[in-house]
Design a protein that fits this description.
With 260 residues, the protein is an alpha/beta fold. The protein has a single domain, classed as 3-Layer(aba) Sandwich (Rossmann fold), CATH 3.40.50. The protein is built from nine helices and seven strands; from the N terminus they run E-H-E-E-H-E-H-E-H-E-H-H-H-E-H-H. It has a seven-stranded parallel beta sheet, sandwiched between helices. Strand 4, helix 3 and strand 5 form a beta-alpha-beta unit. Helix 1 packs across helix 7. The radius of gyration is 18 Å and the shape is globular. The structure holds NADP nicotinamide-adenine-dinucleotide phosphate (NAP).
Length: 260
């Protein structure tokens, strides 16, 4: 049986992926800071792990045993204007979404190299087209995109396969975990409010995380997994728009979409 470790496996995309993989015969280790309140499905076990704490990551990866694949999925968002988001909040964003990925990969790669394993990184279409007032989040996902491609080159000779998953809007608890901030009397106030409303509205209409789980399963099982997989309602429009439209026009369309 193949064993997969999923970071941020306690809710949303990670939990849906764990359920799907276990149902298809994988052994799954879900990790997170909080112990799941509901009973885990058969084939899934929980391991405490804070991706921002290298000691916790090393202990968690070691306790998980021999791994055939790692899905780096843990992440959250920070909302606010670049001018008003403190460097402390910005660092926290990069700490989880970028350094957390690096910590898990550093801990897991020796074992994955030995077993010719797989790596799946959960990025975001926001890594290609920044979400206004989520520039820190978008920048972390652009970094994950680069990490996935560079790592793929580094580990290919060892037989390790690396793929990036780029979801668009997916209905999860992501917005509940987002650090929204709330500066009083911001010069950006009206546009922050408009943008926040669009983000909540699109999330409410977004597909369930099972669609991403399906694509992660594909990346883990394909004989030749792709470099990147887009998934969700914007899976075609964002990459196509990015390729075909001049940057200025693409960004103006983004501004219009978010009502800013
Ligand atoms: N939902 C979307 O529309 C969307 C779109 C594109 C990309 N994504 C990406 O998909 C991934 C999963 O997000 P989601 O939508 O499923 O959100 P979610 O339901 O809020 O899940 C986030 C997961 O990350 C874990 N996590 C957060 N900080 C952590 C830390 N320091 N250490 C360990 N685990 C941590 C959380 O577990 P604990 O709280 O227990 O630690 C939770 O299991 C994220 O990387 C997100 O950026 C989501």
């Amino acid at each position: 049986m193949q064993t997969v470790l999923i970071t941020g496996g306690t809710s949303g995309i990670g939990a849906a992926t764990a359920r799907m993989l276990a149902g298809r015969g994988f052994g799954v280790v879900v990790t997170g800071r909080r112990e799941p309140s509901a009973q885990l499905p058969p084939g899934v076990r929980w391991q405490a792990m804070d991706v921002c704490d290298e000691g916790s990551v090393r202990a968690g990866v070691s306790a998980a045993g021999e791994l055939d694949a790692v899905v780096c999925n843990a992440g959250f968002g920070v909302f606010g204007s670049l001018e008003e988001v403190s460097l402390e909040r910005a660092r926290a964003q990069f700490d989880t979404n970028v350094f957390g990925v690096l910590a898990v990969l550093r801990a897991a790669l020796p074992g994955l190299r030995a077993r010719k394993g797989r790596v799946v990184l959960v990025g975001s279409l926001a890594g290609r087209v920044p979400i206004p007032f989520q520039v820190h989040y978008s920048a972390t996902k652009a970094a994950v995109d680069s990490i996935a491609q560079g790592l793929r080159l580094e580990v290919a000779p060892f037989g390790v396969k690396v793929s990036l998953i780029e979801p668009g809007d997916i209905q999860t608890a992501f917005n509940d975990a987002t650090d929204w901030g709330a500066p009083e009397g911001s010069p950006y106030e009206a546009r922050l409010k408009a943008c926040r409303e669009v983000i909540h509205r699109t999330m409410a209409a977004a597909p369930a995380p099972g669609v991403v789980a399906e694509v992660i399963h594909r990346a883990l099982t394909a004989r030749r997994p792709r470099v990147r997989y887009q998934v969700g309602p914007e899976a075609w429009t964002v990459p196509l728009g990015r390729r075909l439209l001049p940057d200025d026009l693409a960004l103006r369309l983004v501004a219009r979409h978010y009502g800013i």
